[in-house]
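Is zinc ion placement plausible here? Inputs below.
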Amino acid sequence: MSLLFADEPSAVEIVNESGAGDAVLLCDHASPRLPRRLGDLGLSEAQRLEHIGWDIGAAAVARHLSAAIDAPLVLTGYSRLAIDCNRPRGVPTSIPEVTGGVRVPGNEGLDAEARLARESALFEPYHGAITRLLDRRRAAGRRSVVLAIHSFTPDLGAPRPWNIGITYGRDRRLAGAFIETLERRFPDLCVGDNLPYAVTDSGDYAMPVYGEGRGLLHVLIEMRQDGVGNEAGQARWAERLTACWRDIAASLEAVEAGRISS
Ligand SMILES: [Zn+2]
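Reply from A.M.:
I modeled the complex. C-alpha cells:
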C-alpha cells in the first residue's frame, strides 16, 4: 500500500525541466503538505505551517529564480515533518520525533515498515528525479551547478542577524563567489559565511551527494524568513539572487578552478 492516495499531489515537482542555463535549483523544504494517511501527525495547523513544517517563502523565490535564469527547479511535494528530504535516510532528524523543540507524536516509535513507506513514497521520488535530471545533463555534456534554496527562522533562542546565509561543507568555491558577490552588490545586507548552519554529512543530503559526490559546484542558500514572507520580499530576493548568479555565471571557469577548502 502506497503512502499516497492516487488523487494526492506528486512527491516531486519539476519546473522548467529543460532550462538552458548552467544552474539546477533544488527546494527540499518546499511544502507544508502532509500525506492524508498521516493525518496531522498530532500537530496543530499553526505548528505545521511554522518553520518546522517547511521553508517559508523558499519555493516562491526558487520559482522566480528558475524563470529568471532559465534553470530547472526540483521541489518536494510534502512536508519535512513526514520525512526530511535534506537528511540521509535513517538519521534521527530524517523523520523527527522532536523538531525545533516541538514533539511530533505521529513520528514517535515508527517501525521499519512505516519508515520505509515514507522513504519510498516521498524521499525516493524526489531524489530519483534529481538524479535523473543531473544524469541527463551530464550525458548531454551540459554543466550543472547545484543551488539549493532554503529559508531559516529569524529567531531560534536568540535573534539571528544574517539576512542570508551562504553555506557549504568541504567545497567553498561557489559559496565564496556568492559571498563576495552579495557583499559587493548589496553592502547593507548581513551575509552569513556558513551561518546560521554549516553543511554536514548527517545534517544535509543534497550538498554532500550532488555537489561533493558528483564534483559539481554547489551552494546552499538560506534566506531569513522575515525577508521572504510576502510576495514583495520573495520578488526582491529573487532579483538579488538573479543578479549575483549572472555575475558568477560569467566567470564559472575561474570559480571551478578555485581551491577546494578542507
Ligand atoms: Zn530548508
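Short version: The first helix runs from residue 45 to 48.
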